[in-house]
Model the fold of this input.
Amino acid sequence: MSFSRDPKVKRTDGLVSASDLARIGYCERQVLFDAERGKLATQIQVEARARGNAAHASFEREAEIIAARSARRGKCFIASHVLGECDDTKALRAFRDLFLRRSRAGRFLVAMYYRWSPAWCVCLADRPKLTSAVRVGLHACSYLAARAVAVKVKRSS
Done:
């Protein structure tokens, strides 16, 4: 799936892109010229676009690999321990895959979670009151995660 448009093709939907609006402040004549004759990309722009498309493709492949691994072994230790396998744990996993794993900070949080959550599960095993408190918090988090995932999925479709 490619979101880029051929730069030589003139827009036919009657809309003006945000980039064109920004360029109007820089050079009105260039925007008019591009609108009338089509924008011709320089070699540097073509190369930059190719690098960007390659980076996007790489990110997409990485996301597919992560999703496949997640389906096989992506246990949410604490959520699975406290809630079991249910829609709440699925929502938390989807949030992890769609939001957290897409940034360096999010991947760090996920790595720390995987490192420390088995120890938390051991701690929770013989503390039913603490387990109940964590369950309440996880229900709230899963509700918010499910809403965020629904919005993200709706926007991308």
User: Anything to note?
Assistant: Helices lie at 18-26, 28-37, 43-73, 77-83, 87-98, 104-125, 128-156. Confidence is low (pLDDT under 50) at residues 1-6. The two ends are 12 Å apart (CA to CA). The chain has seven helices and no strands.
